[in-house]
Amino acid sequence: MNEKESFNWKKGAFFGFYIYMLISAANYFYYLVTENSLFSPAFIFWGGLLGAFIFEFIFNLINKKQSEVNAK
User: Fold this and answer.
1) For 14-19, which contacts have Cβ atoms below 8 Å and span 24 or more sequence positions?
2) Total-model pTM
3) CA pair distance 16, 6, nearest whole angstrom
4) CA–CA separation, 69 and 54 (whole Å)
C-alpha cells in the first residue's frame, strides 16, 4: 500500500465512522419514539464497515484516473 492508498484508507475510515454514527443515531431516535429498533446491531456495524471500504475504493479510483490523465 503506497502513501496515497494509505491516505485514502484513512479518509474512507473517517467516512465509514460517520456512516456508522449516522445509522446509530437514526436507530436510537427511532427507538426513543417507538421503543423498537429500526436496524439490527449487525446492520449498523456492517453499514459502517462497508461504507469505509466503498469510500476508499472510490478515492483510489479517482486518484488512479487523475494519475492516468497526468501521465498523458
Assistant:
1) 15/51, 15/52, 15/55, 16/48, 16/49, 16/50, 16/51, 16/52, 16/53, 16/55, 17/48, 17/52, 19/47, 19/48, 19/51, 19/52
2) 0.85
3) 15
4) 23
Between CA 67 and CA 33 the distance in angstroms is 49
Per residue in 5-24, pLDDT tens?
A: 999 999 999 999 999 999 99
Category of 43 on φ-ψ map: left (φ > 0), alpha (ψ -120 to 50) or beta: alpha
Contact 55, 11 (CB under 8 A): yes
C-alpha–C-alpha distance, residues 30 and 17, integer Å:
20
Question: What pLDDT band is residue 41 in, cutting at 50, 70 and 90?
Answer: very high
Are 52 and 16 a contacting pair, CB within 8 Å?
Answer: yes
